[in-house]
Amino acid sequence: MSSRPRRHGPPCGRVHRRAFLSELGMGFGGLALGAMLRRDGLVQAAAPQSHSLPTGDPHFAPRAKNVIWIFLSGGYSQMETFDPKPALNRYAEKTYSDTEYPNPLEDPLFKERSRAVVGGDRTHSKIMPMQVGWKKRGEAGIGVSDWWPHLGECVDDMTFVRSMYTTDNDHNAEFQMHNGRHKLDEQQPVLGSWISYGLGSLNENLPEFVFIGQYTDTRVKQNFDANYLGPRYAGVELSLDPDNPLPFGTRPGDVLPREQANQFAFIDRLNRLNAIEHPDDEQLQARIKSYELAYRMQMSVPDVIDLAQETAETQQLYGIESGKPTDVYGRRLLTARRLAERGVRYTLVYLSGYGEWDSHQDLKKNHARSCERVDKPVAGLLKDLKRRGMLDETLVVFCTEFGRTPAVEMRSASSPATGRDHHPHGFTVWLAGAGLKPGYVHGRTDELGFHAVENAHYVTDLHATVMHLLGLEPHRLDIPGRKRLEIDYGTPITDILA
C-alpha cells in the first residue's frame, strides 16, 4: 500500500488565519522589512551553529562611533574642486601628445582600470583649461578651487585622498561606490548594510542605517540595498516633511495612539505564537522587531527632523533659509548631524539630485551652481560637528562616483565643447573627523589629472578605511555560502590615520 506524503501546511496553497494576520502590515509593509533593530535571542538561537551572527560589538577598539557619508551624484570634476591642475591652462587646446608628459591614453593603466559598459573608452584628447581659479588654503596650504569658499575655511580639518579610481565608466559607478562591484559583476551589500550587520544599535528607537535625500530614478535605491544580507540591514528612508517623516509609516489620523498600540500588541502576540511553531523563521523574527521599531520611530523621528529646535545661528550656519539655494541641502545635513547625535550608526546623505554633477556640457555654469548649493551647508556641518566635539567620534565622508576627463568632451560637430566626460581613472574624495590626520593630502594624480599614479586606491579601500575606524574587520563578517573576492574587502588607507 502506498503512502501519501504528509502535509505540513494548509491544503491547496491556502494560508493559516494566524499567518494571514501576521502578514498584515497595517501600512508598514515597506518599512517592516527595511527598518530592523538588532537580532534578538530567538534569531541568534536559530542561526546555524557553524555561523554565529555578529554580537554587535566591534572587533577591536574603534576610533569612530558613526558615519555621515555625503554623496554627490553625477561625478564632480577633480580639477575644478579639490585637485587643481594648472598644467591644463598651460596646454589648453593642445592634445596629450603635444605636452611634455606621457600620453595617458597610451598608459597600460588606461585599460587595466576601466571596463567600458557604454560609450566606449571615452578617448577625448583635446585638453580643456580649468574653468575656475584656485588657491592654497588653510595652514596646510591645500589647493582648493574658488567655487568652495566656505569649505576652503575647513581644509585644516579635512583629509584628502586624491588618488581614487573606479572601473565603471558609466553611472553604474555610483552604485559601485557603495557596494564595491562593477555593474557586470555579481552585486554585493552596500557599505552601510555591512556596518548595520556588524555593529549593534546605539539607539533602540532609531534605525542603524538611514538614507536622506530625494530622487526620481528608482535605481538610487541600490545605494542602500542590503542584497543577500537581507532587507533588515537595508537603509531606511526618512523624509524631511514634518507631516510625513516616515513614508508608509505614519499613524493614520483616525487611529488613536492607544488604539494603534493595542493593534501592535495583538499582532506581536500572534507573531510570537507563530515563532514558537517556526523558531527558524528569521523573517518572522525580523518582522517582530520591525513592528516594534516602527512604533517607536513614530515618536522619535518627528523629533529628529524638527529643526525648529535648533538656534537661528545654527540654521544660518548650514544655509537654512527659505528661498535660498542652500536651504534643502542644509536641512539634509543638519538632520544627519541630529541623527548622529542620537546614535544612528550610518547616515547616507544623497545631497544632490541624481546625476546633477554630470557636466557633459556647460561645466562652468553647472558646477558653479551646484557648488553654491552645497558649499556652505557642508562647511556648516564640519564647523558644527567640531564645535560640539562630535568630530572626535563622527566620521564624515564626501565623495562622488568618478571624476571628469582633463580633455574637453567632443559630443558632436554641431554641439559646443564646454564640458568634460566621465573619468574613472583618478579623482578626489575627502574625509574628516574621528581617527584621521587633519589638513592632510594622500595620493596624487598625474600633472594633467588623468591617472591616479601615487598610492592609487580602488573604492573598497575607502570602505575598509571606514570599517577600520569603526573597529570592524571585514573578513570576520563573511556569510557562509557567499563567496567574496579579496578586492571586496579592500585595504585600509593607513597613511591617513592619526
UniProtKB/TrEMBL annotation:
Gene3D superfamilies: Alkaline Phosphatase, subunit A. Transmembrane segments: none annotated. InterPro entries: Alkaline_phosphatase_core_sf, DUF1501, TAT_signal. It comes from the Bacteria. Pfam families: DUF1501. This is Sulfatase. It comes from Maioricimonas rarisocia.
